[in-house]
Amino acid sequence: MVAVAEEAGVSRRLVYNHFPDVGGLFEAYFHDRTRRYLDGIDDAVASGGIDRRAAFTGAFRHLLAMPTDDQRAIRVLLTDPGLPDLVPLQSRVRAHIEARWLAPFRARVDDPALARALLWSVVSGLFGLADVAARGEISTDAAVELATALVTAAPSTITTAPG
């Protein structure tokens, strides 16, 4: 908290007035980063209308346009189970993403748990692809093309084995 106050050029007291502890500060930081990301997803879905591919492309382009540190923060929030102070926020973000993107996977996969696992596997892959693009190893257009291929190629015949 002292380092945050020093970097912001404010008193420690002011920081503590806004954030009761480090957990509250972390939650505010992650909430701010994820809000911007989720707003971008919602804008892409609204712009794409019923065209899921256009909505997906817009959402992925939004991810690619985000600062790398923001991408990392969201990735940590979505994938790191070792952040107990952030579990409520993590649950809200995951629910938001599932509300926008789980239906297409449910249409492909019989079992709801497998559809959810497929969605989160694809989401993890997309963040990895965004990392590759951020490092300049591939262009944004190539990243979008690969991401679209990844989503399009997601299995369509997974079923749960009996028993």
Give a description of the structure.
This protein has 163 residues and is mainly alpha-helical. It has one domain: Tetracycline Repressor, domain 2, CATH 1.10.357.10. Helices cover 77% and strands 0% of the residues. It has helices at residues 2-8, 12-18, 22-48, 52-65, 68-79, 87-108, 112-134, 140-152. α3 runs antiparallel to α4 (52-65) and α3 (22-48) runs parallel beside α6. The protein is globular and about 55 Å long.
Layout of secondary structure:
Blueprint: H1 2-8, H2 12-18, H3 22-48, H4 52-65, H5 68-79, H6 87-108, H7 112-134, H8 140-152
Helix pairs in contact: 3-4, 3-5, 3-6, 4-8, 5-7, 6-7, 7-8
What is the gist of this entry?
With 163 residues, the protein is mostly helical. The protein is 77% helix and 0% strand.
Key structural traits:
163 residues; mainly alpha; Tetracycline Repressor, domain 2; 0% strand
